[in-house]
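COMPLEX REQUEST
Ligand: 2'-deoxycytidine-5'-monophosphate
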Amino acid sequence: MIVAIDGPAGAGKSTVASRLAERLGFRYLDTGAMYRALTWLAMHDGIDLGEGDRLGELARASRVELDESGRVSIAGSDVTSAIRQSRIDRMVPVVARHPEVREVMRERQRELAEQGDAVIEGRDIGTVVCPDADVKVYLVADRRVREERRQAERPDIGADALATDLRARDDSDRARMQPAADALEIDTSDLDVDDVVDRIEAIVRQRSARHLSVGGVDRSFPTDERAEPARPDDGTASGA
Ligand code: DC
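STATUS: Structure written out below.
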């Protein structure tokens, strides 16, 4: 089963997606980390970030490795912390917008998705990478809340610079940030992480039970007493 979690920076995707994956016993795939790692390598190698062809070649030649403990590496370097620096925040949209880069990344992401149960976090998972995902969620939050969350993660940057960066990234990401028509949109501005995770978990368990009763194929996963009965309309609301 594939659970797609999309949404803009600061909407809470990483925290929600990793906690959900842990509860379900699914793999957690952070596709943003793949674009970040490539950006780190391109800057490290002094490649012009305007050259889509070269960046696409670099992406094809240098596979990003995501291990189970959340470590990220590329071309033999562990870049787990380095990819969270503000210089990467600023440059990653420049790299991610090249079609040559996206083609390679999406191919890799689909290969990873084909390996079985996963919670996949990104911008275009429910629309392009896994349009047949079993559950699609689009997380949103007020800009102010998103800025505060980013500030907590990047205490070294001033609030004004951070707000400017976030706005620039939103503008640049917008083309890839449309929710899938069949995604459930959740506004996380006033919700605790666990409330959001509870809600998605209930939908996943409901879908999984439906697969079992309809298809007869065993796609089950470990049960958890905390699961709540899902509301009948869960997962069908339009996120558009
Ligand atoms: O989620 P994040 O902030 O780590 O993502 C980093 C950048 O990568 C973001 O600016 C948009 C881009 N991205 C993308 O274009 N497609 C994805 N599936 C994931 C991230």
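REMARKS: The first helix runs from residue 13 to 24. Residues 9, 31-32, 35-36, 92-93, 96, 122-124, 169, 173, 176 surround 2'-deoxycytidine-5'-monophosphate (CB under 6 Å).
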